[in-house]
Amino acid sequence: MTVFDVYRALWRHKLLLILMTGVLTAGAWYLTSKQDRMYRASTLVRIQQNIANPAEAFGALQTAGRLAQTYAEIATTLTIATEIKRSLGGRVPLDKVAGSIEAQQVDGLDLLTLSATSRDPRLAAAIANAAPDALRRFVERTGKTGDRINVVQPATAPTNPYAPRPMYAAVIALVLGLILNSALLLAFDLFADRAEEPDEVERVAGRPVIASIPNLSLTTIGALGDDPYTDHGTLRTAGG
Predict the structure, then answer these.
(1) For the segment 145-158, what is each residue's pLDDT rounded down to a tens digit?
(2) CA distances (Å), 228 to each of 218, 221, 231, in order?
(3) Which CATH superfamily hosts domain 39-153?
(4) Domain limits, the chain
């Protein structure tokens, strides 16, 4: 099957391809839009070390970068979630706090992003803003007095939901739908035992097509006159 054959087969089934892809895209958008809206707020912090000698600044920066990776793992533990719950006055269940915290180092630097996800945008911001203090108290308890956790940018209550994203889901469904439905229609066309085009008939019959007569409805046949069979029939091949 050549590229031209592929395009021709898809064009022949274009209405079915559009319908199948449209249904898949609309379904993805509808199902995604019915999900609960989730909001994410993030706090940016910097991990620093107290140094007495300026010559140690470069080494301290490298160490802080490695510490950011370590604190990113610590920030998602149950210990930090318990500290955050205590900071919020115990009003938020521990499982909601522990399940909402995410931490990620920024581009290998000494910067750390502490994020919280919740159905309530204000609660997401409150958890994200409480996370640096909870991490700071953990550092103080472990005796790492040389490490400082400074807030660079506090979290604010988000106005737009982080998830779901119906348009994003619809675009993904559109692309995947076109690919999968095209493959399905091509497979159907490949294994079908019916020749749709004159050149396909010639290839199967091994003889040239000398005439092609389209299918006619009863209305069309009645409009042709008293002899409905004049110049009508099926594909005729030479010598057939």
Answers:
(1) 567 888 999 999 99
(2) 9, 5, 9
(3) EIF_2_alpha (3.30.70.1130)
(4) 1-35+164-192, 39-153
